[in-house]
Amino acid sequence: MILRMEGVSKAFGGLRALDAVTFEVERGTIHAVIGPNGAGKTTLFSVISGEQRPESGRILFDGQDVTARPAHLRARAGLVRTFQLTRPFPALSVLDNVTVAAGAHLRTRKEAVAAATGTIERIGLGAYLSRPAGELPAAARKQLELARALALRPKVLLLDEVLAGLTPAEREPMITLLGELRAEGMTLVLVEHVMPAVMRLADRVLVLDRGSVLAEGEPAAIARDPRVVTAYLGEDSDDALA
Amino acid sequence: MNHLISRAGLGILVAVAVVAGAWARSGSGSVTAQAVLTGLLLGGVYALVAMGLTLIFGVLDIVNFAHGAFMTLGMYATALLATGAGLNPYLSLLVSVPLLFGLGYAVQRHLVSRTMGGSLAAQLLLTLGIAMLLENALLLAFSGDTRTVAVSFDTPLRVLGAVADLSRVLAFAGAMGLAGAVWLLLTRTRLGTAIRAVAANPEGASLVGLDVRRLHALTFAAGTACAGAAGTLVTPLVTVEPTAGELFNIIGFVVVVLGGLGSVPGAVAGGLIVGLTEQLGGIYLPGQSPLLAVFAVFVLVLLWRPQGLFGRPA
Ligand SMILES: Nc1ncnc2c1ncn2[C@@H]1O[C@H](COP(=O)(O)OP(=O)(O)O)[C@@H](O)[C@H]1O
Ligand SMILES: [Mg+2]
């Protein structure tokens, strides 16, 4: 077990975005988080990564209670997230964007640049190396978001809808990469709407609905769970389990 | 890159026309050359002052009205060490720069950090308050007496028919050297890359492991150290008194807005332009305050490019 949430709650005014959420993620697995829009998936990531503080509950990462730790220290310790709406440093080049992240573990800028270049090549962004991040097309911005996260050498990588907005052709290499990262021992938590990908990749699936855990289990069991199907059929047909 | 080259070309064209006009108006090549030389040398110091301001604005989003008072502290450090301990004024950089760096760090950490993301009015009151506090502390400690510091080895140098004191040339060279060092720090080091990342997106920065609070304090400290260094470099050229930095603060703001808020190359270009304008303005508008021409150019440039010379359109 590398990540554990214990009774974590977070409210915005009267709205309970997370309501006593408890779950565990095993080391070296891919854990998917699904749920209708507004279920609290992004808020879950914000609380785990430390941008937002929960009102109650504990977050354990790699054997330590990190509930009170500031966001930058969680990122340095290897608890890293990406954003659904990408947040690059727009004025900086792609290389500098990733170099900043690589610098968290390397002493000199030279070492950080070398590590960042390797990560960028691996993600397939080599052609954009010196372009300002603000000028990238949408798909490349998603890749940059991932490259920046990987440069931090995450132990647990929280990915918020990395496949959304990509064409099926652009999704394939991304899915392959996620599988490779797991094979290398990384733990991934994916918020994802693209169900075939979730079913193919995930070792376990957590279903959130209006801030609460609706179900948790292996993908095949979740797909058959009547409560899950009902929650989804109440939403857009896009979101229906495929 | 292309638009940078065409802008530089346009700038040189305008500069040549203005100098030619000044020559025609004064009827004297040496008067014009003197104005250009004096203007450029002074402009270098303005550039360093503005660089500190623009760094603080670009990274912390704070308009710092205490910058001139920090510069005054640099002047006093130099004046006291030169007159009290006989220290070479330029060697006193080794004192004024770390001193103002440390003071800037503490002021950001304990005072300015409280108004981060707050209203402009709160920031204005705070930094103006710090400025008044420093000025009055200096008044209390050293009274309103003015001081001057002479450079024993000062000597006039002849450059293209114009004359410049060695102390002016050294102020310019020192300011440009330090501006270059700040530029290298920002573009070539891990710390500089981190500072630029915080400027671009503070929320994203903490999630790539950057300690945004510490980087804000370091940036404010570096900007304040620029003010301290500028204070030391101008000490042989000015009368040192508690309000000596005020005019530099105002000119610094003009330079920062002219060059483009948050732009380091803009601060350098803007500083040189304002220095030149101030001196050549004396030829075009004899008998007027040198600042009149500066503000006229300021307004004209902003009408043409509201985001400043090197700024990004909003
Ligand atoms: N910063 C915020 N302030 C107020 N309400 C918020 C904030 N962030 C999220 N919410 C609300 O919390 C609920 C969960 O949002 P979110 O975590 O973004 O859901 P999801 O990612 O599952 O679509 C939504 O109702 C959303 O409107
Ligand atoms: Mg979301």
TrEMBL record, chain A:
- In terms of domain of life, where is this protein from? Bacteria
Q: Which molecular function term from Gene Ontology is one that the record holds?
A: ATP binding
Keywords associated with the record: ATP-binding, Nucleotide-binding, Transport
**InterPro entries from the xrefs?**
AAA+_ATPase, ABC_AA/LPS_Transport, ABC_transporter-like_ATP-bd, BCA_ABC_TP_C
What is the designated name of this protein?
Answer: ABC transporter ATP-binding protein
- Taxon lineage: Bacteria, Bacillati, Actinomycetota, Actinomycetes, Streptosporangiales
Q: Which SMART domains match?
A: AAA (SM00382)
Pfam families, sorted: ABC_tran, BCA_ABC_TP_C
Organism encoding this protein: Nonomuraea harbinensis
Where does the ABC transporter domain start and stop, copy by copy?
Answer: 3-235
UniProtKB/TrEMBL annotation, chain B:
Q: Please give, as recorded in its UniProt entry, the membrane topology of this protein.
A: Multi-pass membrane protein
| Membrane-spanning residues | 34-58, 65-84, 90-108, 120-142, 162-186, 217-238, 250-276, 283-304
Main location per the UniProt record: membrane
Places the protein is found: Cell membrane
The entry's keywords: Amino-acid transport, Cell membrane, Membrane, Transmembrane, Transmembrane helix, Transport
Say which domain of life the source belongs to.
Bacteria
The UniProt entry's sequence similarity note says: Belongs to the binding-protein-dependent transport system permease family. LivHM subfamily.
This chain belongs to the protein called Branched-chain amino acid ABC transporter permease
Q: Which organism is it from?
A: Nonomuraea harbinensis
